[in-house]
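Methods — Computational structure assignment.
A single polypeptide chain was analysed. Its primary sequence is given first, followed by the predicted tertiary structure written as structure tokens.
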Amino acid sequence: MAIHDVGFRGYEGARTSALARITAIAKSDVSRTFRSWKFMLFYLVSIAPALFALAMLYLKFIIIEGQGNTTGIRLPRSAGNAIDRLFTVEGFLDFGQGATTLLTILFSAVVGAGILSRDRKAGALELYFTRGIRPWQYVAGKWLGVWFLLLCQVLFPFIIVWLFGISVASEESGFVERTSKFMPYVALAQMFMCGTLAFWLVALSASTESSRFALLRWTGGLFLLQTVSSVLWRQFQQPNWLAVSPFRVVRRIAAEISGAAPYPSNFDFEPAMWVWVVLTVTSALWLRLHLRPIEVVA
């Protein structure tokens, strides 16, 4: 009853724009997430590939090529390969490869799998919708918050790595010239991937009030489909079976946007694009189905 008393009381003050409402919802989710010290520890683990890449550039341009340091240091093959990879679009798009996939799936589950579930359990959706916030504004705010959080793990750390690299790299190394050509496309590809994952997360979380179940459903589903797609690929020797995995689908499209070589090289773009369309449309319908009853009541 208290919710209805607050929700339907007389309006006072200036009316805010739709954009202000959307950004306020997103800012609230982002600030609440980063206030947790436990999350900050998890965040540091989740950006481990970027931290390792930063260390590799420091090793190459400051220690090895720096003035007054030994220039004949021989690096282990793994370290040398990691440094060479940072001169390529593939390195900035997916530096840690399998480790990056694992960390991104876990990070996306933590920041987005229960993004609507918590509000459903607390009865906050009815409060939102009786305060003049339209359902599409609410969803857009939640999507924007999750999208930004995913970018904090996938893109922003590697932009810092790149800026550090161009600030310390020698002209003879060719780092600035080579990386400046593809970094805008890498940023665009990662924004697309994070935007897609954020929308799928928001849509899927609308159907349950349990944040824990939402987290397990997201991680379990993605890891299961990753495994199934790998088994089908090896069984039938047809890489297009990798499109069974939603995460591999967005990775393939991101590779197309950035100009990176897909893995495997004969994984076609068209099947991945069709699966992306089907999953996105299904997510939109799923979201509408589970928010519609709340919208009508409100």
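Note: The chain has one domain: 18-297.
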